Automatic annotation (TrEMBL):
One of its GO terms (biological process) is proteolysis. Pfam families: Lon_C. This is Lon proteolytic domain-containing protein. Residues 154-237 form the Lon proteolytic domain. It comes from Streptomyces echinoruber. InterPro entries: Lon_proteolytic, Ribosomal_Su5_D2-typ_SF, Ribsml_uS5_D2-typ_fold_subgr.
Amino acid sequence: MLSRLSRSRAVAVCALPVVALVATALFAPLPFSVAQPGMTANVLGENKGDPVITVSGAPTRRTTGQLRMTTIEATAPDARVSLGDVVDGWFRTDQAVMPRDAVYPSGDSVQEIEQHNAEQMRQSQDAATRAALRYLGMDGGKVKVTLKLADVGGPSAGLLFSLGIVDKLRGDGSGGDLTGGRTVAGTGTITADGRVGAVGGVALKTQAARRDGATVFLVPKAECADAAAELPKGLRLIPVTTLKGAVNALTALERGKGPVPSC
């Protein structure tokens, strides 16, 4: 049939399926999420009118400076992400294209994902409390810590929760603050024995931190390269592997004495 058509008409006919395929590729939903820098919250202060950290059973200190946990915002698990969205996000430094399964558990509904993230946050808060009290040598049966952070899920605030508890209860151990009056931000999971784990999205979290005034960013050591690749100007990276190491680094930075690790 095509042999009987003029060259121009034949090309037009052949092009129709190609155009249809391109259009389908451009607008069909793809298994990706597009992420960007999210909100940050000072764990030493309040969030939506409530203290983030409340301690009973032990005296607390009045702190200066800030310890800001960081987040990323991703397209909703049921959102349609097209090829155009992926291409646009791929070339922007303030966005990242990530496999949907890396952001949300595969096959879960929106409700199940929200429940999963809330449970991860609860477990993270429990581990952060145990890690901080263990580091301080305090009895978890006598000292009660309540952590409250609205509209945030997942485990990545664990390190900052632990540091906030330490700062409120002991500071730098000599009457000063862990922050040295600075705005310190960071990210990282934490276990009950104080080990810090990787979280993902650190390049976007450093942007959120700098946007909200941070000059220091605590990053899991395993993610140093990712954080340094697109580090905002004016933000200093400090790699950490343990809660003790993070406290020591902040104390050295605050006092201007001793080694402060860098990426």
